[in-house]
Write a structure and sequence with these properties.
With 466 residues, the protein is α/β, with parallel strands linked by helices. The chain folds into 2 domains: 349 residues, Metal-dependent hydrolases (TIM Barrel), CATH 3.20.20; 94 residues, Orthogonal Bundle (uronate isomerase, domain 2, chain A). Helix 10 crosses helix 11. The longest helix has 22 residues. The protein is globular. One of its GO terms (biological process) is D-glucuronate catabolic process. GO terms for molecular function: glucuronate isomerase activity.
Amino acid sequence: MTTNFIHDNFLLENKFAEELYHNFSKNQPIIDYHNHLSPKLIAENSTFSNITEAWINGDHYKWRAMRTLGIDENFITGNASDKEKFTNWAKTVPYTLRNPLYHWTHLELARYFDIYELLTEKNAEKIYEETSEKISSPEFSTQNLLKKLNVELVCTTEDPVDNLSSHQQFKTQNSSLKMTTAFRPDKAILIESEGFNAYIDSLGKAADIEINTWQDLQDALRKRIVFFNDNGCKLSDHGLNQICFEDFSEAEISEIFGNKRANKSISSDDTLKFQCAVLLFLSETYQEFGWVQQFHLGALRNNNARMLKILGPDTGWDSIGDFSQAENLSKFLNALDSKDKLAKTILYNLNPADNEVLATMIGNFNDGSIKGKVQFGSGWWFLDQKDGMTKQLNALSNMGLISCFVGMLTDSRSFLSFPRHEYFRRILCNLLGKEMETGELPQEMEWIGKIVADISYHNAKNYFEF
């Protein structure tokens, strides 16, 4: 059926919110400074065969919802046809109300395909055919999907061993769209992993260094940072349970790494010391090159061992963790700041109980050298929904300066996820608009509109210096 559910003033509850959004935020370009899109698909300007390939495959948000409704795994990650998978997703959608998937789904259908119907099992086949016909056409290629949503720049995420060939290929195209990358070296930190030594071998090959010692590892990582920097990289990213901090000596780290390379067992204390040493080395090097470092903290990953064995990681078996964050994070940032080697830093948390912890932590290291040098990042993963984003915005407002905030990112693997920027902008404008109406904020439209435009676009543009 046709609906006015997604309309011009969706989520905007008064005239102030509407004016803020339509006049100051809506038309700002998008800088998506952290995502997991495929640079190869962007460089080759690929098209998708059908809507399932672009919209459902790889989307563990949707998969979790389908499983909860009782959909058989064959229609999620199994051998069912793409049309059957789409039909089962359509069957699920009406039951996702109050989950952000309900909003995202209908925003994405509207913004990419001009479809304003509520997706159900009844219209699934028709919408499957209509969207698949469009998305398989050149007008809906990966680059055109990004341009359709006014994306100015995307920053993908690559491992240090990546040769960045797709980024190099893309740069020869002189496209109005820009693409860069973020350096994600977590595999070089997680010494407790069974695959650590094999990964270090591959890192050595990429850096053309035989890695036998702790100094070799530092040399290899630094060499890859130089390579990424030469290819336009300005960011790093880390996905960790928590920041660790332990006292250590260089001799201890050399011995720990040597023992691991010799396939000897490593104690839990040695694991923490090594992780701290690598992270401090990396962070000091990021500061040297003028990069922004990002830390995504608090995910409890791979909880379902049975399904992990069947499907592997990143398939929808992760949740919020309740790790202790404050003390070691403070010590880590302080260790870098004490040497004047603290890079621009963005901290993201997955546990909403830590909102105020991180919102106050950033103030400890904003030293006046750079506007918003240390940032409390936007609602991430389970928190990138209305309630989660509102709580993050409120914590940042109460404890810091929301006016310096660098705004939203998708953190997504999907080329159809970019209406999440619109979603965030509407929530931001509504939050401020409601307070203008009640008198908690002055009805100074030009000034508050400028703050909205800055958060939507200009702060990120200036902060990252792309």
